[in-house]
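Recall from the previous lesson that a structure prediction takes nothing but the amino acid sequence as input. Here we apply that procedure to RGAP1 protein from Hippolais icterina. The sequence below is the only information supplied.
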Amino acid sequence: VIRPEPCHVCGSRIRFGKTAIKCCQCQLLLHTKCREQCPSLCTPRPHHHAWPREGVLADFAPSTPPLVPTLVVQCVTEVETRGLTETGLYRVPGAEQLVREWKRKLLRAGAALPALSSVTDIHVVCGVLKDFLRGLKEPLVTFSLHPAFLRAADIPDDAARDTALRHVVSKLPPANRDTLAFLMLHLLRVSHSPDCKMDVLNLSRVFGPTLVGHSSANPTPLAIMEDTPRQSKVVAHLLSLPPNFWRGFVETEQENLVPM
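The prediction returns the following tokens.
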């Protein structure tokens, strides 16, 4: 090391003259002693240094499928690594200041993200993921398709409703579709963990406003009141679709997804 830099695993500075390990693909730098804690797969450095502070989902997605932003993949991976025994996962809030700090840090890093293993409270990682999704200019369920999702979820017949939901999911922009699929598979794993005590109903209440949102960026108070119960209904029905449907979007090419 010529110029002292922080280790991307433990965060402490690697001093001048010390030996370090650096990835030739993503430029991640770490102490030799931290090698075993390094993520197993790296993320190639993007052409731009940092992500925008806000944007639509496609602004954060990789260039090759599945089009799931690295921030989403890394948060989900960390949650599944050490969070599936935590009661109230995604319902219990993380410290607001830490959530903001880590979100800023991840957005500044672009796709070369620092390891989240140094975040002691897993609820902070959950908060970063939710805050990132809430901060998008448009929710995963796009403004233009929002009415179609609500109509599909209102169909009383189970088979017809599932068909309609599959159809409208397929109309989403590729990055929104792939990320929604990735999150649905993750939330299903959370719902199946007895320690989390977060069933589909609880998760749909938490993620309804975040994933479904409204049909415009500035909804009226009446629209907010009418949409809220329907948002969770949409997520609950999306979670009722078979996992194989969602896997079809994210398991065709896996190079961008960290193994679970």
